[in-house]
C-alpha cells in the first residue's frame, strides 16, 4: 500500500470520525491543519498555540440487545478526540476489569501529546452469557478534560429453563482464558519530533505476551521504541519514516489476538 493511498485512508477516517461531532468540534479540527498539495504534507498547528480539546463517540454498543443463553457476545465501542481517549466499561455502574493491569485509564507519564488527535477502540467480551450477565453495560470514553458514555441493556431471550450447555459453563470457569486485546489505538496523528503512545491493553490467563510490529517488522526495545509494562508502545521523536501500520499481537497458551493502528506524523508549522 503506497503512502498516497494510506493518506487517503487516513483522511477518510478523520472525516468519518468527525461526522457526528458538534459544529464547534469540526471547526476546531479544520483550524488545526493546513495542507501543502504539492508535497502532500499535512501541517499541524504550532506547538506554541493552545490545543482545543474535544471528544465524541464514533461507534456505540446497541442500546438494547437480546442474546441466547450461553451465547458469546462482544460489545464494541470507538471514540475519537484530542487528546486520544482511553475507554473502560461499567456493569450496572461498576467498573469491569478489562485488562491484566486494571489500568484502563492509565497513560504513561513519559507521554505528553502536543497535537494528539486520534481514535481509540475497545471490545468487551462476554462468554457463555448467563443470568448473572444480564445488566446495563456502559462504554466510558475519557480524556483528562472530557467524558462521554454510551449504555447498552443486555438481556437473555426467553429460553427453556432446562437448557444447559455444560461445556460452555465449564469453559467459563476454567483457570485459563484466551489472550484478547480489549483497548487499542485506531488512528493517531502527532507532530513530527514528538513522542506518541499507541494503546494495546489485554486480558487473558496466563497473562498474554505482547509483541509489536511496525510495518510488518518486529519491534525491539531500543532508542526508538519501548513496549510499556501494560502493552502500550512508546514511539520516540517520530518523523516521516514512522508513518504506517503498527500491529499489536497478544498471545498466550490458549489463543492469539491482534489489532492494527495507523500512525501519521504531521509536520509542525514551526518547522
Automatic annotation (TrEMBL):
UniProt keyword list = Disulfide bond, Immunoglobulin domain, Repeat, Secreted, Signal
**Pfam families, per database record:** I-set (PF07679), Ig_3 (PF13927)
Chief place where the protein resides: secreted
The UniProt entry, under Gene3D superfamilies, shows: Immunoglobulins (2.60.40.10)
Instruction: Reply yes or no: does the keyword Signal apply.
Output: yes
* Record has Secreted as a keyword: yes
Tell me which residues make up the Ig-like domain.
52-150, 178-264
- InterPro entries given for it? Ig-like_dom, Ig-like_dom_sf, Ig-like_fold, Ig_I-set, Ig_sub, Ig_sub2, Neural/epithelial_adhesion
Please give the SUPFAM superfamilies that the UniProt record associates with this protein.
Immunoglobulin
Which cellular component terms (GO) are annotated to the entry? extracellular region
Extract the signal peptide range. Answer: 1-20
Q: Which domain of life is it from?
A: Eukaryota
Compartments annotated for it: namely: Secreted
Provide the protein name. Ig-like domain-containing protein
Q: Which organism is it from?
A: Strigamia maritima (European centipede)
Amino acid at each position: 500500500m503506497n503512502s498516497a493511498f494510506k493518506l487517503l485512508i487516513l483522511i477518510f477516517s478523520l472525516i468519518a470520525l468527525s461526522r457526528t461531532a458538534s459544529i464547534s468540534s469540526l471547526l476546531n479540527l479544520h483550524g488545526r491543519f493546513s495542507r501543502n498539495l504539492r508535497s502532500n504534507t499535512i501541517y499541524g498547528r504550532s506547538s506554541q498555540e493552545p490545543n482545543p480539546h474535544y471528544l465524541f463517540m464514533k461507534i456505540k454498543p446497541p442500546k438494547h440487545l437480546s442474546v441466547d443463553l450461553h451465547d458469546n457476545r462482544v460489545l464494541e465501542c470507538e471514540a475519537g478526540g484530542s487528546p486520544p481517549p482511553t475507554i473502560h466499561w461499567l456493569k450496572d455502574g461498576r467498573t469491569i476489569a478489562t485488562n491484566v493491569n486494571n489500568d484502563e485509564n492509565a497513560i504513561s507519564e513519559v507521554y505528553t501529546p502536543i497535537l494528539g488527535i486520534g481514535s481509540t477502540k475497545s471490545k468487551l467480551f462476554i462468554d457463555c452469557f448467563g443470568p448473572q450477565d444480564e445488566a446495563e453495560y456502559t462504554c466510558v470514553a475519557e480524556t483528562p478534560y472530557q467524558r462521554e458514555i454510551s449504555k447498552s441493556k443486555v438481556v437473555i431471550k426467553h429460553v427453556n429453563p432446562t437448557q444447559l450447555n455444560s461445556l460452555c459453563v465449564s469453559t467459563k470457569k476454567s483457570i485459563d482464558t484466551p489472550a484478547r486485546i480489549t483497548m487499542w489505538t485506531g488512528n493517531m496523528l502527532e507532530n513530527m519530533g514528538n513522542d506518541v503512545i499507541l494503546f494495546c491493553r489485554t486480558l487473558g490467563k496466563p497473562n498474554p505476551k505482547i509483541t509489536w510490529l511496525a510495518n510488518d517488522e518486529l519491534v525491539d526495545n531500543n532508542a526508538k521504541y519501548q513496549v510499556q509494562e501494560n502493552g502500550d508502545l512508546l514511539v520516540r521523536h517520530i518523523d516521516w519514516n514512522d508513518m504506517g501500520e503498527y500491529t499489536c499481537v497478544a498471545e498466550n497458551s490458549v489463543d492469539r489476538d491482534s489489532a492494527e493502528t495507523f500512525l501519521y506524523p504531521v509536520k509542525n508549522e514551526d518547522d
